[in-house]
Each structure stands twice: as structure tokens, then as C-alpha cells.
């Protein structure tokens, strides 16, 4: 039963994730955390961090991670197939249709219609992760602010944007600072 639920949940992620991995994050949150309770928001934040460091798309890495957490290796396989299957079918059909009807303005209109929705989904994902990173239990309150996270984020932003440091070095330094803060 859980394998079927994993397949259906990540089939939804795969079929509704227009715009790439960041756009899939709100759907993964809805399916894996809110609806099925397979992982927590804290675990999802860790998943997002790990998926940025590993090769492969975020949605596929996320489906594999959540599937493994919910039902072991069979869950990882089923969730990954559920996530990939809709995209494989849709891309194959769209490629055929695009080659056949690429000169129609309907195609341009359809693609232009999807852009704002993708931007909104990416923004929702960023805000959700920011709230979890900066506030304890995602409670927006002056007393719930994780000051060390805000400081580390600000320093990393300056190092990346103003000083143009290598992102890998900045990521390693951020991780090291978190280890030091937790040891203190």
C-alpha cells in the first residue's frame, strides 16, 4: 500500500513540476510532509541541501530520498519511477508535437502562459526554506529568530555576490560554521 501511495504522490510531483526542481519543491512539501507525513520540514531542508551537493535533478533526488525514508530501497525505486515517468511521457509527446507544429503561435502562447506560474512556484519554495532556516519551528517571531543562521546567510551572500568567492568554498565554510556553532 505504501509503495502505491509513494508512486502516486511522486507521479503528481512529476506531472505538476513545470519549470524544474525548484518549482517541484512546493509539491514535494505538500505530498511528503503535509499530506503523507513521510518526513518533517527539517528533514526536507536537509534533503534540499544534500540534493544541491549531489548530481541529478532536485525532484529526482528528493523522490529517491523520501521514498527511501518511507519504505526503504523499494520505496526509493518506486518514488523515483513515479517522478520520472510523467516527464518522460510528456517530453516525448511534446517533442513530437513541437517538431510537427512548431510554427503555430498557439505553442508560443502556451509556453508564455507557463512562465509566471513557474516563477511563483520557485518563489514559494524559497520563502518556505527561508522561514525554516531563519525561524525556530517556522514561527515568525522576534523571539524565534535563529540569529546565527541569519548572520551566516548574510556573510555567505556577501562572499558570493560582492567578493565573488567560489560557491564550494562558501558552502564548506558555512557548514564548518554550523558545526562550530553546534559544538559551542
From TrEMBL:
Cell location: Cell membrane
Transmembrane parts of this sequence: 7-29, 76-99, 111-134, 140-160
Topology with respect to the bilayer: Multi-pass membrane protein
Gene Ontology CC: plasma membrane
InterPro entries, per the entry: CHR_Transporter (IPR052518), Chromate_transpt (IPR003370)
A Pfam family the protein falls into: Chromate_transp
Keyword line: Cell membrane, Membrane, Transmembrane, Transmembrane helix
Domain of life (superkingdom): Bacteria
Gene Ontology molecular function: any one: chromate transmembrane transporter activity
Record family assignment: Belongs to the chromate ion transporter (CHR) (TC 2.A.51) family.
The name this protein goes by in its record: Chromate transporter
Source organism: Sharpea azabuensis
Amino acid at each position: 500500500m505504501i509503495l502505491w501511495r509513494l508512486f502516486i504522490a511522486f507521479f503528481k510531483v512529476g506531472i505538476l513540476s513545470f519549470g524544474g526542481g525548484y518549482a517541484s519543491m512546493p509539491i514535494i512539501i505538500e505530498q511528503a510532509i503535509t499530506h503523507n507525513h513521510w518526513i518533517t520540514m527539517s528533514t526536507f531542508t536537509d534533503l534540499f541541501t544534500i540534493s544541491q551537493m549531489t548530481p541529478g535533478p532536485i525532484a529526482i533526488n528528493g523522490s529517491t530520498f523520501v521514498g527511501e525514508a518511507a519504505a526503504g530501497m523499494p520505496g526509493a525505486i518506486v518514488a523515483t519511477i513515479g517522478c520520472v515517468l510523467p516527464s518522460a511521457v510528456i517530453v516525448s509527446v511534446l517533442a513530437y508535437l513541437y517538431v510537427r507544429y512548431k510554427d503555430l503561435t498557439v505553442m508560443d502562447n502556451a509556453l508564455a502562459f507557463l512562465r509566471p506560474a513557474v516563477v511563483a512556484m520557485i518563489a514559494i519554495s524559497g520563502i518556505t526554506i527561508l522561514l525554516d532556516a531563519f525561524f525556530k519551528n517556522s514561527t515568525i517571531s522576534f523571539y524565534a529568530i535563529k540569529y546565527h543562521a541569519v548572520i551566516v546567510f548574510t556573510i555567505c551572500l556577501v562572499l558570493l555576490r560582492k567578493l565573488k568567492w567560489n560557491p564550494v568554498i562558501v558552502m564548506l565554510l558555512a557548514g564548518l560554521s554550523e558545526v562550530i556553532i553546534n559544538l559551542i
